[in-house]
Structure formats: C-alpha cells, structure tokens
Amino acid sequence: MDSPLVPSLGEIAGELVTLSTSGTLWTNLEVTLTRVLLGFAAAFVVAVVLGIAMGRHTYVRRFLEPAVLLGLVTPGLVKALLCVIWFGISMVNPILAVALAAAPVLIVNITQGVREVDPHLHEMAHVYRFSAWTRLRRIWIPALAPSLFTGARLGIAMSWKVIVLVEIFGLASGVGYQLNLEFANHNVAGVLAWTVAFALVMTGIEYGILQTLERRVSRWRKESSV
C-alpha cells in the first residue's frame, strides 16, 4: 500500500535518478566531500604530531589527555552548533567542525599504536641518527599503519555525521542542506534518496580508497612474514 510516510523503493530510486540527471546530487556531494577532506586532512596532520608526542612522552600524554577525552565525549551536535555560532557561514566553519570531530579518535588510536611500537626501532633510529622526517617516513608511518587506518575509518564516520549537522544548521549548500530542504518539504523519498547516496559514498570510500591503501601499505608485513 502506498504511503507518503513509507515510500516504495521505486520512488526512492526515482528521486535518485532525478537528482543525478539534474546535477544536484553531484554538485552537493562534491561540496560536502571537499569540506570533509579538508577538515580530515587538518585533523590527520595534528593527530599524527600529537599522537606520536603523547605515545612517546608521558608528561605530554597527561597534559593533553583530558582535552582529547573531552573531544571524544562531546556530541557532534554540540561541535556543529558551536562552529556555526563562532564562524557563521564560512569555509572555516565546516573544516573546523570536521577536524574537531575526527582528531580525538585519530589521536587515541595513534597514541596507542606508538606505545606498541618495538623499542628496538627507537634504538636503531637513535644509533643511525635518523632525522625527524626519516623517522616519520621509515618508522612511524609503517609501524602505525593499522592504527592510522582504524582511526581514519572512525574519524571519517564522525566527520560525515558532523558535516551534515553543520550544513543543516549553518550552510546553504551540501548534502546536509539538501536533507534539510527535503525535510522541510515533507519529502520522505527525497530524504531517503540523499541518505542512500550518502551511504554509497561512504561505501566507496571504504572499499575503493581505504582498503586499497591499507593493502598497499601493509604489503611489506606480508612479504616479511613469508
């Protein structure tokens, strides 16, 4: 039985086709993806620096741990609202909101990964007088790959949730803004169509990017175990 509250799969598919052919889907997905990637990149750089410092030095960990825990337990809605209040409609708003959402998860995973790195690697780096860049590229990144990818998955998931909220409350473009428009028009099929598109993008990122990169980065582990 047809119902405006429970649209059929055909109606949802029809909405997706309409959004795709009109260009609305691709334009708004591009805007949202750009915001997520910029915010996540900023969070990643900060998290690598702070995560390694917290894993290597106890006093740094004790000093920063309360702030990281606060970032973990603060709801994404609060982060989104604060960024909208502080920065209004600007590019800083979504980028900072995404960074605040992703960084704590990344920092926790990287810190834990650093603490599990073989101490002999540190001794080797000290003996051969590796530069900070060489240590990062040759020791930290390969050793922390599992922690980085775990943190990246969680961080990207958090980023998507926060960016939608920011776009709903304070922006005039993006997937969140379109979801809000469909909600205002009581178009359940439209809301579900955007949700499906959203889920497909997340699936593409997971299987098309993260898992591919993870296999390449982890190839040396398989070769060394043979």
Number of domains: 1
Average pLDDT for all residues: 85
Strand content: under 5%
- What fold name stands as the CATH topology? MetI-like fold
Number of helices: 10
- Broad CATH class: Mainly Alpha
Structural class: mainly alpha
* CATH arch. level architecture: Orthogonal Bundle
Biggest β-sheet description: none
Task: Please sum up the structure shown.
The protein is mainly α and 226 residues long. It has one domain: MetI-like fold (Orthogonal Bundle).
Please give a structural write-up:
With 226 residues, this protein is an all-alpha fold. It has a single domain (9-225), classed as MetI-like (MetI-like fold, Orthogonal Bundle). 86% of the residues lie in helices and 0% in strands. It is built from ten helices and no strands. The chain has helices at 9-22, 24-56, 58-73, 76-87, 92-115, 119-127, 132-170, 175-184, 188-217, 219-225. Helix 2 runs antiparallel to helix 3 (58-73), helix 2 (24-56) packs parallel to helix 5 (92-115) and helix 7 (132-170) packs parallel to helix 8. The longest helix is centred in the C-terminal third of the chain and has 39 residues, at 132-170. The radius of gyration is 21 Å and the shape is elongated. The model has no long low-confidence stretch (mean pLDDT 85).
